[in-house]
Amino acid sequence: MKLLFLSLIGVMAGCAWAAAPKLIRGPYLQLATTNSMVIRWRTDRQTKGLVRYGLTAQTATNVIAHAGELTEHIIKLGALQPATRYFYSVGFETNGWLSPVTNTVTFVTPPPVGPARPTRVWVIGDPGTATADQRAVRDAFFQWNRGQAPDLWLMLGDNAYGAGTDAQFQGAVFSVYPWLLANAPLWPTLGNHDARSANSGTQSGIYYDIFTLPTQGQAGGLPSGTEAYYSFDYANLHFVCLDSQDTDRSKHGMMAEWLRDDLASTSRDWIVCFFHHPPYTKGSHDSDKRSDSGARLVEVRENLLPILEEGGVDLVLTGHSHSYERSYLLDGHYGYSTNLTASHFKNRGDGREDGDGAYRKPAGTQPRQGAVYVVAGSSGQVSGGKLNHPVNYVSLSKLGSVVLDVNGAELNLKFITQKAELRDYFTIRKP
Amino acid sequence: MLFYLRPFWPRRLGWLALLLWTWVAGAHGPWHEQILLVTEKLAQKPRDPELLAQRAELFLAHGFVDESRQDLVALETLQPGNLTNQLRRGWLELKARKTNAAIEQLTAWVKARPENLEGHFGLAQAYLLAGQPGAAETHLSRVLALSDEPRPELFLERAQAQVAAGLALTNTLAGLDEGIARLGPLPLLQKFAADLEMKRGEVAAAVARIQTIAARSERQERWLFLQGELFRQAGRTNDACGRYLAARSAWQALPDKLRRSYVATELRQQIDARLAEFTAASDR
């Protein structure tokens, strides 16, 4: 009788186990603000999702659930403290109790907007190959960063080859960066390959389904009304994400007009802009060819760069060419490379403290202090090219990623190869 | 089979030229990757309607109208009377700027599929191109009604079409406010609405609209200047002068690093120029 009872219990437990929803994606952090964080994950069957969180692993007892039973779970944690580490796990409801499907992991909310604070940003471009090369770039960053999560990370487009399908995002993003996705907020931009399964006009498709991005200036900046392009603040940095793929890139298009207003409205010390198509490249794409990529490279250079430079941008990050290319401190070059003149260089040194000296943006009221342009599209593959654009100080056909550190009046950028070697670096200083 | 092979050969030669061009160009734009992939598949299944449709759409998306037309003709031959090909044909004619043909095809399509967003959007673009903003406005309104998450541009496009069609400003403003309600206080929609308020003499409403942008902005100098411009336009010089002075104070309160952008420098010059105008006028 006792044996029968135990068997019955065993069968019931087995059934319960079999019926338990399984985590198949995430958790991943989105739309980080000083007092909120969006947590998303996917289960293999519909269930009522919950997040348990708190200030320590032991006191992570606050529970938030979403309404209804879903497979795509999106929960916004609100009323958080800025610059604070939170412990959390996600799970599902069983008779009113949380059944966790993850171990407890952590995130840190962004610090108060305005005051300077050491900030580390990991930047990857065109990573989504789901290959050993992509994983090597990831591992090299972890090695470089001693296993720590950055404060935030940026994806510069072509996040999932070849067509940005859900399965491709699963293989090239969620399966490759699970720890990072759970521990640091990701801010992406749309690449041409992602756009094969997404439409910026209707904000629909896989890319827009997967990511939760600001449309109302929730994380700083002016409302854009669309997830295709947006801005956000982090400490003394203002980040601007543009859609160079699938949104009107004309001088007086809605994105351009929004950009003008947004840049004129920010008070941050540093402005970093990121989008997919590079204005200056001689890698696997050529910014001197109007026929390349439907003239997108030429259009961003001719139409959007003047707005960015007039608005005081410091650094522009792009991908598309599967190489690393980094410019001198530049200003006002909107033509082809054959039209480049000495006057376009604000500083023709290497930008290194131990070389020609950091790029300095001096005090005073004269406008147009210059910006550095970086193509960082080799986080998943390299594809060669002439690599001889004359605006660039460095052009490399090397796998790798970019580490951006901003500390008060100093911005440092490093290119780390897939072997964790430092292959380029520079500093910009402001008074 | 023979029927099909005849048009296929020149196209294949065209592809050799395209491949050669690609090799010479040494670049790898997304368009030819996609098109080459479909072309390879079509070589195996030359009468596959799905592949033909896919390539026709890819060609069109990348501006190769003639190539797209060739594929569409082949597709229409394979699928006579297929309704979706009417939509494709409509968009093709639109890209070819043959507005009458586009309107004819797309009208037939939306008649059969009145809830189709792409059809209404195509028709709106065709009517705009044909210089018929009133008809365009109708279809843009349908697009907005059918879209869950419309892009902001659509509200502006509709408002511009309404103004061009000479419709009542009240309706246009209501349309912009619908956009603001759905998407948030977007600066461009508010600025356009402020211009319309001025057209109907509602200065206070125009200034209030700029104020809603200012309320979301950390920096005020640009918005105070714009408010000054609105008062100036309305001939309210004292109010205008007050806003320009406030804009100058806000500008002066900016930290040095923010004054250094071209935009900030230019704005300061504009503020000073306006204030100088007033000083000169009062001296007279």
CATH fold-level label of the largest domain in chain A: Purple Acid Phosphatase, chain A, domain 2
Spatial order of the strands forming the largest sheet of chain A: 11-10-9-24-25-26-21
**Amino- and carboxy-terminal Cα gap of chain A:** 83 Å
Shape of chain B: elongated
Could you explain the architecture of this structure?
The complex is a heterodimer of chains A (431) and B (284). Chain A has 431 residues and is an alpha+beta fold. Chain A contains seven helices and 26 strands. Chain A has helices at 2-19, 132-144, 166-174, 178-183, 206-210, 254-265, 296-310; strands at 23-33, 36-47, 49-54, 62-65, 70-77, 85-94, 97-100, 105-108, 119-124, 152-155, 186-188, 198-199, 204-205, 230-234, 237-241, 270-274, 315-318, 324-327, 329-330, 345-347, 359-360, 372-376, 392-396, 400-407, 410-417, 422-429. Chain A has a seven-stranded mixed β-sheet with strand order 11-10-9-24-25-26-21. Chain A has a seven-stranded mixed β-sheet with strand order 14-15-16-17-22-18-23, covered by helices on one side. In chain A, strand 25 and strand 26 form a beta hairpin. Chain A is globular. The model of chain A is unreliable at 9-17 (pLDDT under 50). Chain B is mostly helical. In chain B, helix 5 (83-95) runs antiparallel to helix 6 (99-112) and helix 5 packs parallel to helix 7. The longest helix of chain B is centred in the N-terminal third of the chain and has 24 residues, at 2-25. Chain B is elongated, with a radius of gyration of 27 Å. Chain B starts with a helix and ends with a helix.
Helices and strands, with pairings:
The complex is a heterodimer of chains A (431) and B (284).
Chain A: H1 2-19, E1 23-33, E2 36-47, E3 49-54, E4 62-65, E5 70-77, E6 85-94, E7 97-100, E8 105-108, E9 119-124, H2 132-144, E10 152-155, H3 166-174, H4 178-183, E11 186-188, E12 198-199, E13 204-205, H5 206-210, E14 230-234, E15 237-241, H6 254-265, E16 270-274, H7 296-310, E17 315-318, E18 324-327, E19 329-330, E20 345-347, E21 359-360, E22 372-376, E23 392-396, E24 400-407, E25 410-417, E26 422-429
Parallel strand pairs in A: 9-10, 10-11, 15-16, 16-17, 17-22, 21-26
Antiparallel strand pairs in A: 1-2, 2-5, 3-4, 3-6, 6-7, 6-8, 9-24, 12-13, 14-15, 18-22, 18-23, 19-20, 24-25, 25-26
Helix pairs in contact in A: 6-7
Chain B: H1 2-25, H2 30-44, H3 49-61, H4 65-78, H5 83-95, H6 99-112, H7 117-129, H8 133-146, H9 152-164, H10 169-183, H11 187-199, H12 203-216, H13 221-233, H14 237-252, H15 256-259, H16 262-283
Helix pairs in contact in B: 2-3, 3-4, 3-5, 4-5, 5-6, 5-7, 6-7, 7-8, 8-9, 9-10, 10-11, 11-12, 12-13, 13-14, 14-16
